[in-house]
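Hello again, I could really use a second opinion on something today. I've been staring at a protein lately and its backbone has me curious. You're getting the sequence in one-letter code plus the fold written as tokens. I'd be grateful if you could look everything over and explain what you see. No rush at all, and the record is pasted right below:
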Amino acid sequence: FCLQMRRLLFAVWVLFYFVSLLVIREMWTGRYLRSPLARALLVNMASETGPHGSQEWYRCCPELLGEPLRPAFVQSRLDEDTRAFLSRSEEKSSWLLMQLYHSFMSTLFSPFLSRTSINGFLGRGSMFVFSAEQFRSLLRIPPEWRARRLLDLGAGDGGVTEVMSPHFQEVYATEVSAPMAWQLQRRNYTLLGIDEWQTTGFRYDVISCLNLLDRCDQPLTLLRDVRHALEPATGRLVLAAALPFHPSIEVGGKWERPSEYLKIKGETWEEQVTCLANEVFQEAGFAVEAVTRLPYLCEGDMYNDYYVLDDAVFVLRPLD
């Protein structure tokens, strides 16, 4: 009798949880928002973050960049691959039962696992940094260009790695989250340990470090290690940084300040990009070859179709 009662109580709790989430979602979408001000704010938020307001995602004033950076700026635009990612995210967000399941599992495992690992376990939260065309535009390479080795640091589920991989004979990746590492192995990428990629005995033609600098405990040390791991004359680092720059590291589900703290000066996107180029990258032994502004997109949930951060994406050349 006690066992049956426990099962019944658990089933009621799960049902109550799902119904509560469903009600909250309906309220968030505006159906039950009675305040005209709240409705206006909701419409304004949707228009600013949707594809129709995406011009802001790529806006830059080159004259506000430091003088050496201005010739390196590449203007990007919303292209077909980006639109396709947004459409897929919107479609997934509308799958209510799946979103309820994801929300329930996230709540269940959040005391034990990081959000990244939960997303890897559920196969959700894919990222989009650049399209294949935008990648080639930054590196100034034609579609048929090929090189030997690519290393993607902190590759996540490998979605962005897949954009770059057709240009390389060998593709290597690192990832600290075990569920995300399983996703990379399923894509047949060679997985390296976080302390292994610097000691393989060979160098890389391109290393990508995408939105890792603000989530790394020792970002300057990482940049110096990357410089030594690149081919000296032809190697390039493709680096993305979310701006405004707010460095923190996830430790057991909590966020802490990194031991090497990069304080990026400036209020605007252009000022922070200039600071990164003139202070952080030069100190680590890099020169900026190209830079662009792109949206850092992530698949959404039952509340938002997708999430957007501002990215600065650089192509860096190691200095002699």
